[in-house]
Design a protein that fits this description.
single chain; 612 residues; Recoverin, domain 1; two-stranded antiparallel sheet; 6 strands
Length: 612
């Protein structure tokens, strides 16, 4: 009865919290358009034929979930997405709760109900975890698959039966279908199973039969290659270029700051030391009997390292690390009960994690709900003893957000609201199949949903083959570098080698069509990002860093651009103004043959350029 009441209460808190933070992002409407086209019998495509299929939705299983809701119940994706996502989140909560009740200490004693309560509370009270229970991006679905696979890997050796291996492989398969990241879990599953065969703990025939769920992944990859021409989604080519650890490390550091990673890490270090001291060199031997657990830890660390060192984070605030929240709480409880018997240490550790993670809620509470391209610093609102740490966090977040990384909830919500104000409400339109209307957008999510019958060229390449593979041309920031250098050189009006807040405002006020509010925002932003010695002024050395920094900035998923000649070849003839779309009649119709010719020609250009 106590356990049931606990789970019902925490489940209710979870649902209420998820609804309070509920969000649909502009990017979610990309998948919605694919689902709509699939429902119309066109398949999972961005633009209707004769345009070639391009995969810009990334999660097959999430698209299939929305497609099922539309086909079976007639509920369109914008209405079903968050409900389905929260249901997946509840399933994830159930997995976490089931696991927490089965955590055992060194002597086989399970966690007390109070320790389990603290563990689960640390999860359902976490802003990052609750935030990405919605969003329309299928994050909770991938989290469910990922966490389920990890916790299953920690099954005791005596309980790892053939049935368990089938279930573990199934979890890996679902993870791979939920996101391409899940292929890492598939590889780890095959590796751990192969080790068991080599060690003669499992017969080869039994292993092959148990891994048959992974055939679904192979089938999907082959279909993906046949239908889209690539094994990986088009979004990979649009977003990922050269390694970007400078961004990824900052992204991970801010995640740890807001989600108590700085507490979890020392706990893990203590646990490792205690285990080594207890077993000395013999501590290696037990690992050989728990290869699935080793594979799970390795895959989790590898996934985190990939986004940290290779990709550079994510445009959405901590989305790609959200599965670490339940895994962190469960592992903290498990390590604490291994370090010391009894309930006290697990309670203290998980309660501390939960309390330390309230930093995310503080950030949400103090952030003003207004749209600005510049990060809003919060350290002035903090007690003096917290200001140094928060200033570091503010500076790091500002660096990330100016490069389209780690955007928080209010930014994505306001961007979508702005798109809805400019674009018409969704409407179906009869079009001439021999002269396909074409529109061009930079933010294509809601635009693609609002204009379902028009072909849409995605300038940034998430849904465009050519744009996603066009080489990146690094340019300066908003202001050309030479103008910025001149402007900053003149900013220090009195020549005292200190450029003050007021001098920055005056300098940027000389730019044409610059509002006073913009000069204030720019001055505050530059001080936040570059002032290390004096909060109110920049030294000469700090000023000299500004122009080179902006000239070398990268912009996540915004670096690539569709070539102008490529766009013009389609003769875009759809304009949107004041919430209405207008189609211009072309002198030369955009026929099916012409579309095929343009796409074939430009794809060949890219292949030839890549081969040189």
């Amino acid at each position: 009865m106590i356990r049931a009441a606990m789970l019902v209460g925490l489940g209710a808190i979870f649902v209420i919290g998820a609804l309070q933070l509920a969000l649909i992002t502009d990017d979610a409407y990309i998948t919605f358009r694919y689902v709509s086209n699939a429902h119309d019998g066109l398949g999972l495509v961005w633009n209707q034929p004769p345009f070639k299929p391009v995969e810009g939705y990334s999660s097959f299983l999430w698209a299939a979930s929305l497609w099922a809701a539309l086909s079976w119940f007639g509920v369109e994706p914008p209405q079903s997405a968050n409900a389905i996502s929260i249901l997946y989140g509840l399933a994830l909560f159930a997995v976490v709760a089931f696991t927490a009740f089965r955590i055992e200490g060194r002597h086989g004693k399970r966690l007390s109900h109070l320790a389990v309560l603290c563990t689960l509370a640390a999860v359902v009270s976490n802003r990052t975890f609750l935030q990405w229970t919605t969003g329309g991006l299928g994050t909770s679905l991938f989290g469910l698959c990922f966490v389920t696979w990890v916790v299953m890997a920690f099954r005791g050796q005596e309980r790892r039966t053939t049935r368990w291996l089938v279930a573990w492989a199934t979890a890996a398969a679902f993870a791979a279908l939920a996101r391409p990241d899940g292929l890492l879990l598939v590889a780890a599953t095959i590796g751990a199973t192969g080790w068991a065969v080599v060690a003669r703990n499992l017969k080869l025939r039994t292993a092959l039969l148990a891994l048959t769920p992974l055939l679904a992944v192979a089938t999907h990859l082959l279909w993906h290659r046949w239908f889209y021409g690539e094994f990986l989604p088009n979004t990979y080519y649009a977003k990922v270029s050269t390694p970007w650890p400078e961004a990824g490390v900052r992204y991970l550091a801010c995640f740890c700051f807001e989600n108590a990673g700085w507490l979890w890490a020392p706990l893990a270090a203590v646990w490792v030391v205690v285990e080594i001291m207890r077993q000395r060199l013999a501590c290696i031997r037990p690992l050989l009997g728990h290869i699935p657990a080793v594979a799970a830890v390795t895959a989790t660390l590898g996934h985190t390292a990939y986004y940290t060192l290779r990709v550079g984070g994510d445009p959405f605030g901590f989305r790609v690390l959200s599965q670490l929240i339940p895994l962190g709480a469960l592992s903290a409880a498990a390590m604490a009960t291994r370090i010391r018997s009894g309930s006290l240490l697990p309670i203290v550790c998980t309660l501390s994690l939960g309390l330390a993670s309230t930093v995310g809620w503080v950030h949400l509470a103090l952030t003003e709900p207004k749209f600005t391209v510049f990060y809003q610093p919060l350290h002035p609102k903090m007690p003096s003893w917290l200001q140094p740490a928060w200033r570091w966090h503010d500076r790091t977040m500002a660096w990330l957000q100016i490069q389209v990384l780690c955007g928080r909830r209010h930014l994505h919500a306001m961007f979508l609201e702005g798109e809805k104000r400019q674009l018409p409400a969704r409407q179906r339109t009869e079009v001439d199949p021999n002269d396909r209307p074409v529109a061009v957008f930079t933010g294509v999510g809601y635009a693609g949903w609002a204009l379902p019958d028009y072909a849409i060229i995605d300038r940034l390449g998430l849904n465009d083959y050519v744009a996603a593979r066009t080489p990146i041309e690094r340019g300066s920031w908003v202001i050309p570098e030479e103008i910025l250098v001149t402007l900053l050189a003149r900013a220090d009006a009195n020549g005292d080698t200190r450029t003050t807040r007021e001098e920055l405002r005056v300098a940027f006020g000389t730019l044409p069509n610059t509002a006073e509010k913009d000069t204030i925002d720019v001055a505050e932003f530059l001080l936040l990002l570059f002032a290390l010695e004096d909060d109110d002024a920049l030294s000469k050395h700090e000023v000299e860093k500004i122009a080179p920094t902006f000239a070398t900035m990268r912009f996540m998923a915004h670096d690539r651009r569709a070539p102008a000649d490529y766009i013009n070849a389609f003769d875009p003839n759809v304009t949107v103004k004041n919430g209405k779309s207008t189609v211009r009649q072309r002198a030369t119709p955009l026929t099916h043959e012409r579309v095929r010719t343009i796409e074939t020609e430009w794809r060949e250009r890219l292949k030839n350029a890549a081969g040189k």
